[in-house]
Amino acid sequence: MAQVESRMLDPREELPGLVELARQARVDVLKMLNRAGSGHTGGSLSAVDILVALFFGHMRLKADDPCWRMRDRFVLSKGHAAPALYAVLAKLGYLRPDDLMTLRQVNSCLQGHPDAKMCTGVECSTGSLGQGLGMALGLALGMRLDKLSSRVYALLGDGEMQEGMVWEAAMAAAHYRAANLTAICDNNGLQIDGRVAEVMNVEPLGAKWRAFGWNALEVDGHDMEAIVSALQTAAAHEAGPSIIIARTVKGKGVSLFENRASSHGVAPSDHELKVALRELGEVPLG
Amino acid sequence: MANEMATRLAYGEALVELGRRDQRVVVLDADLSGSTKTDLFAREFPQRFFNMGVAEQNMMAVAAGLAHAGKLPFASTFAIFAAGRAWEVVRQSIAYSAANVKIVASHGGVTVGPDGGSHQAIEDLALMRVLPNMVVIVPADGVEMKKVVETVAQVQGPCYVRGGRIKSPVIFEETYQFRIGKGVCLRQGKDVTLAACGLMVHQALAAAEWLAKERISAEVLNLSTIKPLDEDLLCQSAAKTGCVVTCEEHLVNGGLGGACAEALGERLPVPLERIGVRDTFGISGRPDELLEYFGLTPADIAAAAVRVMSRK
Ligand SMILES: Cc1ncc(C[n+]2csc(CCOP(=O)(O)OP(=O)(O)O)c2C)c(N)n1
Ligand SMILES: [Mg+2]
Predict the structure, then answer these.
(1) Residue B1 confidence (pLDDT)
(2) A63 falls in which pLDDT band (50, 70, 90)?
(3) Do B19 and B159 lie in a common domain?
(4) Could you tell me how far CA B225 lies from the centroid of its own chain?
(5) A117 burial type by CB count under 10 A (0-12 exposed, 13-18 middle, 19+ buried)
(6) DSSP labels for A14-39?
(7) Which among B277, B10, B259 is positioned nearest to B140, based on CA atoms?
(8) Is B197 found in the same domain as B89?
(9) Nearest CA-CA distance, residue B119 and chain A, Å
(10) CA trace torsion B49, A38, A113, B274 (10° rounding)
């Protein structure tokens, strides 16, 4: 590999830095959604810590070369959490901060669900649940053929695990011993119509994934140190694919939205934004 | 009825009424009951409502099984997942076996809006129309949706009904009688035929008003049943006006425009223009912006009418 001059984000931020980045990302997510007037608040906020841990605490990326051949890849299988991904991509410098405020507008690179054709840093277009893990597996197998040491990460929702395709991909990834693949489940216990346990139970998730031949780890999805350490453990597991089942709170960080199914697909109003920003320690200027 | 109503809400309300009258009615949804409005039925008849989770393919297979057990299943989710994700299941388990399943999908077309292209079904009518045994209906407004729900419950066999996300103007009187395979002439004219379905019926009526100011007399047909298409009504109108513009919130391929082109090509070749999305996917934006972006406004229809008349 030609050693390029660019800065590789490795080793990454220290823990306090990651926690602060996540706070800022939540602020961005809320502002973007408020500006857009629609979108998915709950599932974006529950995924923020995981995304920050991944992009700033674990993945091999280059800040000035989003298309670096050796980069690790990320697939947002739960595509509706796009605002959280966009906030992180902006922090990486892959998007301009101004772009964030165009979310969901005509001709914006920030489509309601991630569109790889239009947005730097989005590896695969998603939005239809259940398909991301299969694409991530394809990336992993392709890169293994090319003898690249890159790893692939996919973030799935717990409701999303009801899709049969998730289990088809799970079976195939174990069968092909895709050790360069790590799935993460944003296990917030909620989907659109209510509690996952009541709509269509997916538990016990750990036992299911283990039965499918995966190395399954369970962590607190809002404990930055725990997430980063689980990502390292998963990467060190060479026998096959790993999944990190991250226990999360839908709407995390904003009590107005925490643990409410109703926060799934509604953007914060102006008033809610104000209350939320205050709670996140964001002091309005002037 | 209010002068604006989303067809999905009309569906939810009609389903409750139907459920009260007909014990065979069961409803399935895939974690979108608040959006498809099947939650209204779920609240009143929890025993006859099955939330299948985010699992559209299985939902369609289970619906087929319920039909084989003598139930009258209505299966609902967004159009892109009902017709797209579950297509081959719908083909094998529902259409192939002529199972008595009513698929009523919400969120058809680009007026889904800001969720973007991944969620805007612009190919569902084509996907469903190619299936033998499948009836395909796109109600123009809330009144027609209610009549459609009542009607499809009375016929045996698979139906696909498409509703929309946004509120749209009510066109029909409560006394309107819907019949499968029968279009309706909403406005008589002699210079050009505007054949429309769904939300675009309103757009076509508005275009006809605009054309009238230009002394162009447009006939407006509501062809809500895409399959079987009311070819007789279409051809009668085309014979009179000599040209046709189709209007749909769908790709110009395979849906209403495709169906009309096929019928006219075989029976009465006349100049034809198709208003719809052209070989591209949807994007995020407000519904009104997207109608403009994709050329689905009354002005676009009127311009197409002028073009098609010049080709007579
Ligand atoms: C195939 C498919 N079916 C339905 C939807 C609509 N939908 C969007 S989010 C969602 C619920 C997902 O729940 P979960 O995976 O738990 O997400 P989270 O709680 O993290 O937001 C549904 C049904 C979709 N996007 N794709
Ligand atoms: Mg969830």
Answers:
(1) 55
(2) confident
(3) yes
(4) 8
(5) exposed
(6) -HHHHHHHHHHHHHHHHHHHHHHT-S
(7) B10
(8) no
(9) 7
(10) 80
Give the closest of B34, B57, B283 to A111, CB-based. Answer: B283
Q: What is the CATH number of the domain that holds B285?
A: 3.40.50.920
A179 CA to centre of own chain: 19
Same domain, B18 and B153: yes
For testing contact with chain A, the best of B54, B57, B80, B288 (most A CBs within 10 A): B54
ipTM for the whole complex: 0.96
Per-residue pLDDT band for B187 (boundaries 50, 70, 90) equals very high
- A12-279 fold: Rossmann fold (3.40.50)
Strand B135-137 versus strand B225-227 pairing type: antiparallel
Cα gap A37→A31, rounded to integer Å = 10
* Partners of residue A93 on adjacent β-strands: none
- Ligand 2 mean position to A34 CA, how many Å? 21
A270 C-alpha to ligand 2 centroid (Å):
25
Residue given tokens 């595509």 in the structure block: A79
Q: Where are the domains of chain A?
A: 12-279
Q: Tell me the pLDDT band of A7, cut-offs 50, 70 and 90.
A: very low
pLDDT tens for A240-281 read 999 999 999 999 999 999 999 999 999 999 999 999 999 999
Domain shared by B149 and B67, yes or no = yes
> Domain range holding B241?
184-309
Quick one: which atom of ligand 1 is closest to the CA of A47? 20
Interstrand relation of A152-157 and A73-76 (parallel, antiparallel or unpaired): parallel
Q: In terms of domains, do B96 and B230 share one?
A: no
CB contact under 8 A, A37 and B114: yes
For residue A195, give the DSSP letter: B
Residue B125 tokens, joined: 């009518």
Which ligand is located closest to the Cα atom of residue A78?
Answer: 1
Which candidate, B291, B278, B12, B250, places its Cα nearest to that of B120?
A: B250
Residue B303 and residue B253 share a domain: yes
Contacts with A159 from chain B: Cβ below 8 Å: 31, 53-54
Q: What is the CATH number of the domain that holds B108?
A: 3.40.50.970
State if pTM tops 0.90. yes
